[in-house]
Amino acid sequence: MLATLKLGVYMMRQGEYISDHDAKVANWVAHVLCGGNVTPGTLVSEHYLLDLEREAFLSLCGQKKTQERIAFTLKTGKPLRN
Question: Is 29:53 a contact under the CB 8 Å cutoff?
């Protein structure tokens, strides 16, 4: 499933439907939704998934482009596509 989502992100980026930063965010979302790098069928705990989500959130919050998006949205109420 993770490979399928990553392929979709790749194809959207190649088609210029999304920016590089959109792709980075989408790949993190796919990583979290699929439970990270685990063998298919592996059972994971809620705590594990929350840790993955926290890792993605903190990683993205440390990115300048994410900070620009947050500031722009708070100021204008509209999304920034950078």
Answer: no
